[in-house]
Every structure is written in structure tokens, then in C-alpha cells.
Amino acid sequence: MKIRGKHIILFFVLFLTGFILVVNYESTDSGNYDPLNRLNSTWAQENELRNQIIMEQSLNKMLQEELRLYQYQVRELEENLSTVNEKSEEKAENLLEDIERLRKIVGQVQVTGPGIEISLEDSDYLPNGANPNDYIVHEGHIQQVVQELYVAGAEAIAVNGYRLRHSSFIQCIGPVISVDGNISSAPFIITAIGDADHLEAALTLHGGVQHQLINDEVTVRIQKKTNILLDSYLTEG
Prior knowledge:
single chain, 237 residues, alpha+beta, Alpha-Beta Plaits, five-stranded antiparallel β-sheet, three-stranded antiparallel β-sheet, 8 strands, 19% strand, rod-shaped
């Protein structure tokens, strides 16, 4: 059979095509190149990264919620502490005020301020044949005034200049009065420091102490004072 030129050309074309296919196959096989696998791998990486981001966001959200909770608890503790401090300070102030008031009542400290002065005198009128003891000031009269003044809020009281304390005693000795062993005679001046208007109103109530003293033939005079000074029960010297 006679080989023609076109057969030779066709042979070379087929040979070259086969060679190219073999080379491409080997190259592809040696690199394990698979577009679908490459796409799947890329998607898996992106999906893993996305999941990590979502987890980080969830964790951050949880941490923010915990932080807000801690901040709320801190504010609550601060408010409670502030309230406790205010209440403690208020209690301390009230306690100091009570102590100071009690020190005044028991006569431990000198007291100055406005108040009233009450004068109790024996009656100027003595009917014929009457008992003189019924027309003089007795310890009970002084005690009535003192008790009413304390109830009305007097801070400090003195009788004829003798400062009273919680354990003071007033006793009649004939025509004179003993105040904690100090002898005084009429007129008896009872001095009280406090709200002058309130103290006077307490004594002059209808049917009150002043009315009872007048019925007992005791002369009563009440005078307001802008400033009174009462020394302590025992003056240091």
C-alpha cells in the first residue's frame, strides 16, 4: 500500500494530540487537582471561620451580660452602703443629741439659753383663825412646777439658783425648803431653760399647775427670759 502525504500529516496530528492528552493527564494526576474538591474545601474553611465568629460573638454577648450584672450589683452595694452610712451617721447624731440632752437634765454641764422664771410666794392674806401652813409654799408646790416644766421639755431647772439633777430632792423644813441639802426661803424662784412660750403655756393651761397653786393661796408670777445661765450641779473649781 502506498503511503500518501496526507496520511503522514494525519499521523503526526493524532500523535501530537495523544501526547498532549497524556501530558495533561499526568500533570493533573500528579497535582490531584479537582475543582469540586477545591470548592468544597474553601466552603468548609469559610463555614468554620463563620462558626468561630458566631461563637466569639455569643461569648462576647454573655460576657457583656455578666459585666452588666456585676455593675448592677456593685451599684446596689454602693447604694446600700451609702444608706447604711447615712443611717449610721443619723443614729450617731441622734445618740449624741440624746447624750447631751441627758447631761443637761442630770446637771453635768452648764446650760444657757432662753426660758422662763417662776416666782412662788406665800400668801399675803391670812384670815383670822386660819392655819398659817395653809397659806405658805410647800415642797409639793415646787415639785408640781418642776415636774410640769420637765414634761414640757425644759432642758435645765434650778430652784433659788440651785441646779436640779435627776436625783434631786426637795423637802419642807418648817417655813423653809431644802434643795439637795441647800436651805432656801420664800420667795422661791424656779428658773427653767427651754422654749419660753411652750413652757409658759404648759403652766398656764386652764385647770393646770398655775390654777392649782392659786387655789392653794400661793402667789404665782411667770416671766419670760431671753437668756438664762445655769451652772452645772457641781461646779469644778
